[in-house]
Write a structure and sequence with these properties.
The chain contains 9 helices and no strands. The protein is mostly helical and about 150 residues long.
């Protein structure tokens, strides 16, 4: 209920920022920022990694990624609602795409070199909401760990 009331007061500028964005790219970016923000702040290393992921995954230049980055970061900092992003992902991503998204989420969690309990809890919750098995999440975590170690 609170989120509905909050959305009524969303500024036109904020709404205009998301109107031009691809809804699936926006949903994925929001989840990446939600994972980064779960500890109360988004570190520079996490934000840089998310920008690199958006550039790599969506074939953007850094300038093209900037509006998506800004809108998703704002959404993650001002809203606690995951369901719109989860619904967009569930309705449009294949199981393989969800598992790849999970690898990206794990990369963000592991970017600062530590894994907090609340980060693990959020990813476990997202796994349930996105119908990603524990096994697939574990495999995604190992792939993310390996990618971070080799880069």
């Amino acid at each position: 209920m609170f989120s509905k009331v909050k959305n009524l007061f969303k500024s036109e500028a904020e709404e205009a920022k998301t109107d031009d964005l691809d809804p699936l790219q926006y949903a994925a970016a929001v989840l990446l920022f939600e994972v980064a923000a779960v500890d109360g702040h988004i570190g520079e290393d996490e934000e840089s990694l998310i920008e690199a992921i958006l550039v790599e995954e969506f074939n953007f230049s850094p300038d093209e990624a900037a509006p998506l980055l800004e809108a998703a970061k704002l959404r993650a900092q001002t809203s606690v609602q995951l369901l719109p992003a989860v619904r967009a992902i569930n309705d449009n991503y294949s199981d393989a795409n969800k598992e790849h998204l999970f690898e990206l989420l794990w990369r963000v969690v592991l970017a600062d070199g530590t894994r907090e309990d609340y980060e693990s809890v959020l990813l476990r919750r997202l796994a349930g909401l996105l119908y990603v098995s524990d096994k697939a999440s574990g495999i995604a975590r190992r792939r993310a760990t390996n990618k971070l170690e080799t880069s």
